[in-house]
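VOC family protein
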Amino acid sequence: MNFHTKPVTYVSNVTIQVSDLQRSLDFYQRVIGFQILSQTSQEADLTADGQTAILTIVQPEDVTPKQPRTTGLYHFAILLPTREDLASIVPHLVNNGVQLGSSDHLVSEALYLPDPDGNGIEIYRDRLPEEWTWHGDSVEMTVDPLNFKDLLQPENISPWTGLPAGTVMGHIHLHVDDLKTAEAFYVDALGFEVVTRYGHQALFIADQKYHHHIGLNVWNGVGAPRPAENSVGLKHYTLTVANAEKLEDLAKRLEAKSYKANRQDSRVITEDAAGNEIHILY
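Structure:
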């Protein structure tokens, strides 16, 4: 099953704020391997397939540096099509002086790095769904060391020529101020399912039994404040839903539970209780 196409509800774009658009464009093209789809003096849409903007970077007026211990972006996650793609980007990143974190999550293998402003990035590949272990409605995930020796077998590595066309935005992971209120919004109003809980610290939610489309944590503290509107970090992210009927259903559910549901053209703009803005479209 493809967990990043309709009728699944999935994260299709993440829009982040940066302090220097040109510096960020150099990083995201040269280091990560994006192409520019469109660009203005303060904003650029980035693509892997030449058609779909999965990451948008914006330089706001009077931008301020990333604020510590606030709600907002923990990381966005770029999903590569194959394990060979993941292996091939490793020497490329190392040759560009990138300090990498890494983990084997059982459902996936992942690399972690920041952009020049400290926005968190995950680059990962999924194991096949039949290799995931479910215990009822809960999928088994962990934070094991990544086996680089196995990953970086010579037959897995090809010269890096940029993000493959099948690359998508795999998920987003957010800092929130309270897990219970976050769960009420994302599960009761938006209709996601909880697939993993990490005690009282984090939970992971998904549609159609993916291992997670959204991660939520309180690692910046319960009651963490919202960042300033013009600070580096998350501006908003986009959820794509199956059709107009699904969009209208979500808008009505949001309104019924007294959440923001601002209808604009063919999208609904809302935000979770921690101030993370979400654009929903079909």
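Residues 10-281 form a domain with the 2,3-Dihydroxybiphenyl 1,2-Dioxygenase; domain 1 fold (CATH 3.10.180.10).
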